[in-house]
User: Fold this.
Amino acid sequence: MWIILNSLSADENIMIIIVVIILVFIVLLIYRRFKTSVIKYFPIDTNKMERRNFENRYNEYRKSIEWKNLSDSALKRANYKCEICGQPAQVVHHKSYPSSFKDDNLDNLLVLCNKCHYKIHRSQIEYKKRETLFSESVLSGKQHFRIEVKEARNQSKYIVISEMRADEKGRSDDIRIIIFEDSLDILIKVLNKAISYIKSKGK
Assistant:
């Protein structure tokens, strides 16, 4: 190709380049016009594209402050130890990937060492659902709360307070607060102060 171009004059080379550009432009127009037919006969691996798109969104989510706060809570719940074997924690694992990362929650996470993480991904280990020791709903006007006591695999207990809401399309949009056992005493003191303040101002 280069030998042919070198043997031509400058004007002829320019003409060839212009013709190539025009041909490329025509091919693009034809592709846009008959895109559906082209994809039908030359199918694209949509699963691969969807997987790549999810991986990009997941990687972005793992950089977010929401993920940092949630994974920190999971590590604290597990006392920074693998919830399978008790070795030092190295990974915060998703039991299942939520369709929307805003729906991600502490119950969907498992704290693991690298060895147990490897085994779980190869279905060599099964994990049991985290046990709920206590659950009660509280209705107050338009607000609906659910209070649960759960037990982590290291036997430490924690409270989950959820404000159960629905968005404009009726989808669940819970707001969760996680309270760990070692924070209860100080939280109760602060709550009692806040309640006393409200009652004193109401008189």
Summary: The first helix runs from residue 2 to 7.
